[in-house]
Write a structure and sequence with these properties.
Elements (H helix, E strand, L loop, with lengths): L5 E4 L2 E3 L4 E3 L3 E4 L16 E9 L2 E7 L7 E7 L5 E8 L4 E4 L7 E9 L20 E4 L10 E9 L2 E7 L7 E8 L5 E5 L6 E4 L8 E10 L2 E2 L6 E4 L2 E2 L5 E4 L21 E2 L7 E20 L6 E7 L6 E6 L8 E19 L7 E9 L1
Antiparallel strand pairs: 1-4, 2-3, 5-6, 6-9, 7-8, 7-10, 10-11, 12-13, 13-16, 14-15, 14-17, 17-18, 17-19, 20-27, 21-23, 22-27, 23-26, 23-27, 24-25, 24-26
Bound molecules: calcium ion (CA).
The site of calcium ion has 9 residues, from strand 27.
């Protein structure tokens, strides 16, 4: 006999002369489930619940592939009454329950289901038993409202300033997150209550675009994120731009060697006498946040960094004529808008000429 086929039966008595059939009785074989699970579905394991905020609980569990089509999750109250019911895909291993209230007491249980299983003719293995109930209590404090209006502005080659609007009255502070080139966001700082700005000076590279997002936080959890914004740190605007100098030792030490991006080539003045100067035309008016010189030697160079908008009137932006720093590379921070930048050398180490490997002007 074949599973599910119909069969008819009749009987008769006989004595070798006459016989007569009984009525026909139709019977069928009991159908097994159409797509029965290979065996009874086991109960999901490692079922845990953890509070994320005063309104959200994260659930997770472990399950291999047993032919399940989904899981049902039941939220229950402290009287073991079901107050919500969720069904998730058979491939899921986590679920976020939202819309909860602060200081709420919740319990959860889960089971695996197989909706392909023929329930009407089940041999009893369609769904697994329920897991044990796990319980949580959400934090007392309501999560803060998300900040808005986040903006990011590059202030220099190594600083980006953030500002935003505080939209919550119960935050402990704000969490600042940063990403580079579409990478993952990483928390870089937390602020105090009511903060509306932050200066990021943590290991930024020049000419690099950074993305930022922020959220408010308190004991109840984190708010939603603000929108994502980005800013690019100032880059070297002097690279390969037109240069000139007070004198040149030889064509091998031309003024253009001072901004060719090569730290093995340098400008060198002709005489050992000072003063000497080297300047660059940025090509157009630029917002400038600082300049960096890499001298030929570590030693005591004294100098001024000057800017001009017309190549004739010069304004001192950094006065190092009383310099005591003997580092080979020196960065000076200043803020202006100009097209021409000049380094005016007033003293060099004994026996040396005015000579620099690279001069960089950082701006937008
Ligand atoms: Ca060079």
């Amino acid at each position: 006999m074949v599973n599910g086929d119909d069969y008819e039966f009749r009987v008769s008595a006989y004595n070798g002369i006459n016989f007569q059939y009984s009525n026909i009785s139709t019977k069928w074989l009991k159908k097994s489930p159409l797509n029965p699970p290979p065996s009874a579905l086991p109960v999901p394991s490692n079922f845990t619940a953890s509070t994320v905020s005063s309104s959200r609980v994260n659930l997770s569990w472990s399950y291999d592939s047993y032919g399940q089509t989904g899981f049902t999750i039941t939220r229950i109250d402290y009287n073991n009454h079901t107050i919500a019911f969720f069904e998730v895909a058979g491939t899921a291993s986590s679920f976020q329950d939202t819309g909860l209230i602060p200081k709420g007491s919740y319990g959860y249980k889960i089971n695996a289901i197989n909706t392909n299983c023929d329930q009407s003719h089940s041999i009893g293995n369609c769904n697994s038993n329920y897991s044990s109930i796990v319980t949580v209590i959400t934090p007392t404090v309501a999560i803060p409202t998300a900040p808005y209006g986040l903006s990011a502005t590059a202030a220099s080659r190594s600083q980006i300033n953030l500002s935003w609007s505080d939209n919550s009255s119960n935050e402990t502070g704000f969490i600042i997150e940063r990403a580079v080139s579409g990478g993952s966001f990483v928390k870089i700082a937390t602020t105090l209550t009511n903060a509306t700005s932050y200066q990021d000076i943590s290991s930024l590279s020049s000419g690099t675009t950074y993305q930022y997002r922020i959220c408010a936080y308190n004991g109840g959890g984190n708010s939603a994120y603000s929108g994502t914004v980005s800013a690019t740190t100032h880059s070297n605007k002097a690279l390969n731009k037109t240069t000139s100098a007070s004198s040149t030792y030889s064509s091998s030490y031309a003024a253009s060697k001072g901004n060719d991006g090569d730290i093995t080539t340098r400008w060198c003045a002709s005489p050992t006498t000072i003063p000497q100067w080297w300047k660059v035309d940025l090509g157009s008016s630029r917002t400038i946040s600082g300049a960096e010189v890499m001298w030929q030697y570590s030693g005591l160079y004294k100098y001024r960094i000057e800017t001009s908008t017309n190549n004739s009137t010069w304004t001192t932006r950094a006065d190092l004529t009383n310099n005591t720093n003997t580092a080979q590379t020196q960065y000076q921070s200043f803020s202006t808008t100009a097209r021409y930048v000049r380094i005016y050398v007033t003293a060099v180490p004994s026996g040396c000429r005015a000579s620099l490997y690279e001069f960089r002007v950082f701006g937008q």
